[in-house]
Amino acid sequence: MNKSELLLGVDIGTTIVRGLLINIEGKIIADSSLEHNIIIPKLGWAEQDPEKDWWKHFIKVVKDLLKKGKVEPSNIKAIGVSGSYPDLCPISKDGKPLRNAMLYSDNRCINEVKFIKDNYHLELTSEEILPKLLWFKNHESEKFKDTEMILSSHNYITYKLTNKYSIDNLSATSLIGLYNGLCEKLGIPPSIIPPKYPAVKIIGKVTQMAAKQTNLKQGIPVIVGTADSFANMLGVGAINKNDCVINYGTAGYCVMLHQELEKIAMGKFPLITLLSYLLTTGESLKWFKNNFCQYDMSKYQNNIYQQLDKEAEEVPLGAEGLIFIPYLRGKRTPTYDPKARGILYGLSILHKKEHFYRAILESWGYAIRQGLEQFKKDPLKSRIIATGGGAKSKIWRQIVSDIIDKPQNYIENNVALADAFLAGYGVGVFQHFSHIIDWIEIKDITNPNPKNVKEYDKYFKKYMELESHFFNKGEN
Q1: pLDDT tens across 31-44, in order?
Q2: 208 & 284 share domain
Q3: Which of 27, 54, 238, 355 is deepest in the core (most CB within 10 A)?
């Protein structure tokens, strides 16, 4: 490849589709994004329209990239896509979605989780595909019978581009029970389960129809792609054993690698520990903003979160006794409880909305620390990388570092950049994952304040007392 040749990366996130065009030196040629919403037909449900929210938004973002970058589509040499997962998108023989996709945060299949545990001794949560698929079979049987294949968000886009079915090895871990013979026992045709490949394998090329819809050139190689969590690790340079990532996203998580990321991409068993996982990390802030800050939104407009941060900084550590339990969409770790709900404890006449906002910020730190303390050994002997949209907030990072007593390196969200890099890796432009390190900039380092660490110990103990009282058993 020469320097004029480009790579395209697109991430189908929970609330935003973002795409980048980069050259082989990692320089961003064009950047585009488009927001979309989560559909909530009933309490506990979470859906998106695959055609409208995923594919049509992908098309708009790609067209915008081509326009902004003023590039010829023929200069794009490979495409990589990541996305939220595990999502259940059943499609028919003609390639059309049979229903809205059930997102990873959808909790409707509680009874199916229990049925699988009771009858097959398989411990799952409503996150995984099998109980979602069983719910689909039990409640929408006619659509289920018409299902040709099940896909997640990035697999769906890859299919639309290439007309090829696939799933990467990492995302396939959410298909527990579907590759080991349980399908037949549950009346699920094994043929609807996508074949597994390494994330960087070229699965196909842009078809004539996809080229016409997107303005891309027919024949561009497309890799299998991967889950946004995997691309996120690569995009912030978490590629070595013991590297840890705290993602301040719509759904937040704290993960640690037990082997090199490159080995996982090539299909090795993904040795990754999920230390903490909260479905409503950033979504809690958006919920609070939309429901309690209408006046502030009209006054501060695009700077609303910065204003809320400033107000929260004026609130004493611990929000003057106000503690928020953040399970607005149920609980995933360290125990699974889809019926768990949020709690605001310690409310008094003293408290104002800025106390509530700070309590939400602090709840994420408590959730991370809870996950760390569940882990028998201290896993954080290497660096911790903070990323995701919420990590832009200095006060939020400081609160988390003070609660967990660990420093964080802040690196901006580079998921789409990682997608483009993976595409380049797939076509042989890059030989090692370490190449991406040269593209990544540490924006800030947040160190814990020893005085605050000591104070937060008291509040964390109170948080855990509440956790134990209300959610000590979980729901399996």
Answers
A1: 999 999 999 999 99
A2: no
A3: 54
